[in-house]
Amino acid sequence: MECNTVLAATRRWVSEVVVGLNLCPFARRELVNERIRFVATDVNSEEGLLTALQEEMMHLDQHPEVETTLLVHPDVLTDFMDYNDFLDAADGLLVHLELDGEYQIASFHPDYQFGGTNAADAENYTNRSPYPMLHLLRERSLERAIAGYPGTESIPEQNVELMNRLGADHMRNLLIRTLSPDKSSDG
Prior knowledge:
This protein is α+β, with helices and mostly antiparallel strands. Helices cover 48% and strands 12% of the residues. The model has no long low-confidence stretch (mean pLDDT 94).
């Protein structure tokens, strides 16, 4: 898959869904200040993805001006259950590199499904993205942001309520629109 296409869709998703719907109240500032690193990898194996993930952690270590990285991997872990299983290996890499406590990994996938939900439930769209991706976050920055933002513990619940209010059809259409380079807004 063409990396430029993947990155453009991911940027639209961050702008229109994550920031546009205020799913993450901290994302707007980082997007505006261009402190989000968008990386698309063409790896097609879990081993390759672990290597790419390690490289991104090292990049963040060497570039404190970058706040967070979205590592998009459209050609590996397209099946959500495989992706979900892989998250243990990704967290294991953090531990192995002694970077747990320094970074954390948030997960986004086109078929994301929370335990105890049906695949078609609207609330799953809080973590659905155009392509599978791993979001590397700096722990210290996250702690500072949470300390400065009252009510962060209610963000997930508010996001679920918003998804349920908007509905699965609306969210599916919004996600599909992020995949299209045609930015015409017809609804």
